[in-house]
Amino acid sequence: MSVGARLPRIEAADKATGRARYVDDVKLPGMLHVALLTSPHAHARICGYRLDAARAVVGVKAILIGPDLKTPRAGGIIKDESMVARDKVRYVGEPVAAVAATDLATARRAVAMIEVDYEPLVAVLSVDEALAANAPILHEEFSSYVQSIKGGGRGNIIFETSLSEGDVQAAFAQCEVIVEGIFETQAQHHVYMETNGCVADVDASGKVTLYATCQSVHHIQQRVAEELGTPMAKVRVIATRVGGGFGGKHASNVHSITAWLARAAGRPVKLVLARTQDFEVQRSRHPARIWMKTGARRDGTILARDVEITTDGGAYADESPPVLTFALMMSRGPYRIANVRARGRAVYTNKLRAGSFRGFGNPQASFASESQIDELATRLGIDPVEIRLKNAMRPNDTAFGGHPVPSCVLRDCLVQVRAAQRHAAPLPVRPGRTRGVGFAAMSHVSGLMGTAAEVQLRTDGSIALSTGCVDLGQGADTTMVQICADTLQVAIDRVSYSQQDSDSSPYNWKTAGSRSTYMTGRAVAVATAAMRDKMLLHAGEMLECAIADLELRAGGLIGIKGIPSGVTFKDVALRSFFQAGGPIAANHSFVFDGPPFDPKRASIHQLAFQNLGVYTFGAHCVEVDIDEGTGKVEVRRAWCAHDVGRAINPLACEGQIQGGFVQGIGYALTEAMQWDSEGWLTTITLADYKVPGVLDCPAEIIPIILEDPEPSHPVGAKGVGEPSLVGAAPAIANAICNATGARLRALPMKPERVLEELEKRK
């Protein structure tokens, strides 16, 4: 059986030996190289360009500026941006021009010769400035933008939404203990190992082929076609190996820029961003301000919660509406709270756009939510795990918004991490340091949007599998092959898995939202089962027996139950190809089909999702040491229990849990993108922007996998890519408070911030 086996990734050897082909490895004959000119202003009107000097540089083949763009603005839910700025620039680092030349040095020299005349405008660099009564309007033409969901346009507001259940005001009147506070979270960069990049080629008919590091070939195909004003049939996207994404490669202007320049020059074009430019040009996690109020009875029963979230969307809408929506949905926490009101707004500022990032609004909401659960526990004198157990969701409860949740092992997660920590041998505490233990619980989803899979039986009895699910390094390729192989009871080396190509791969929305194993894995399982049934039909005719009498046997055999002999997959394939019926293949496609939001249970105003679901749960326990002299926080050990439905590959699940937790350490303690008073990003290198290194990570991050099969998935699987990041920051914050009594309500919890809180307590 392949499902449940701890198998190495099918691409691991290529990556370890350097054979894996990333976008910067793509080299085409006659290829040009691209350099970008970016804005030096946070907010300015473009008054004119002078290009003669750049055009005169020997080797320059094409130049792109805003006036060259003849198509409407593009974007996701709100179409408010262009591949390069036109009319206005709205953040420092926004692409203003692009040059394609015979080599990168020439392109950079030409870019430096482009002169742009700007009329500087007043910049808006915080949500408070954006919401001020006299604030400059960053998108004066907002009402003319194409918007798939309405909900913004008042001043600098991108989107407003709300979700509520019960009677919050009446419930607070019954509460005996109430905690209230404001929490703030920062902009975090994705810091994928490989920066954004693309190679574009064009054929004689004008069809553009892009080799891209991306999270969806179909999404990029749609976006590039939209920006070029050409049918999607004239754009092909092939995914290279991807050196990490975390949400930062779901859409990038580099794809459209390279495609435009390739068409203009009639030659292949490459653009791979330098690390500093990737920091400046691409996107971040949404900074957020969360006001939260939670009330309970003296016995610890939580009766009410009120939440207001404001997110900084940066210069363009990008994924701000769905990120805000999901943050509100997660703001109740994984608890039975009957009366909840959550309101939110995302606003434009003159900073780098904020977009999707591992956790998708959940880390911000959960930092506030789980911190207040501990505050309640302290005020009530209740153990922090016990208060969570008392209020934890159970099977067949409903999520915030009314989705039924048939599978829920949250209580088991909490019990297991507490037991693991209690039974672990104590680590020594060094002089001058104080030890704290903290807990956090979390939930997430696995089901949303659409996907598809195709499977074929080849003449030798092997199997060809195809999906549009791009592997970002998390092991999705191996997972899909394991599901297919397990359904047919063959070894994984009998299944070939094709590279994602928008011309031939079945549709997949994105590799995002912890959805690959549940959504695309479900499509693979259903398609493979359908092909298996066709094979059994052939075998029944060949063996002259009823299908009900047949069974699959390991190694690619079909036989009659109780009789040793049978036919091979190859026998069946040859019959279908050359004698009867035709080649055997099957496909399955669907859009998430779980129960929708329940308008009878919840009052819903302008959510940015039609539907989502398949909830997964987890709990963390961390031990931290705090240096009382410096405020430095050291995570010594962590236990992370997560519900995966059914572990297709436990090794991959453990890797996702550990990797997510480490990224969560960075979010909690060290990582923060910072801008100066003129809107310049000051953290543009890894010397300025601190990601956790080996010495910053605990030697022990113990993953605990819980399996509670999801009934809507043929194999029972759920996703686990994001939840382990979600719980890290609140667990660490709770551990700091447990050790010192200092409650930190802002991220990151750097030494100076911790020390300041310690001094206040003294």
Detailed description of the structure:
With 762 residues, the protein is α+β, with helices and mostly antiparallel strands. It folds into 3 domains: 187 residues, Aldehyde Oxidoreductase, domain 3, CATH 3.90.1170; 329 residues, Aldehyde Oxidoreductase, domain 4 (2-Layer Sandwich); 142 residues, Aldehyde oxidase/xanthine dehydrogenase, molybdopterin binding domain (Aldehyde Oxidoreductase, domain 4, 2-Layer Sandwich), CATH 3.30.365.10. The chain is 28% helix and 26% strand. The protein is built from 19 helices and 29 strands. It has a 7-stranded mixed β-sheet. Helix 6 packs across helix 7, helix 9 packs parallel to helix 10 and helix 13 runs parallel beside helix 14. The protein is globular.
Q: Brief overview, please?
A:
28% of the residues lie in helices and 26% in strands. Helix 6 crosses helix 7, helix 10 runs parallel beside helix 18 (728-740) and helix 16 crosses helix 18.
Distance between the termini: 60 Å
Instruction: List the strand order in the largest sheet.
Output: 3-5-1-12-9-10-11
CATH class of the largest domain: Alpha Beta
Report the CATH architecture of the largest domain.
2-Layer Sandwich
Q: What is the global morphology?
A: globular
**Largest β sheet strand count, sense and barrel closure:** 7 strands, mixed
Q: Hey, roughly how much beta strand do the residues contain?
A: 25-35%
Q: What is the number of strand segments?
A: 29
| Count of helix runs | 19
Q: What's the alpha carbon Rg, rounded to whole Å?
A: 27 Å
Low-confidence stretches: none
Q: What is the averaged pLDDT score?
A: 97
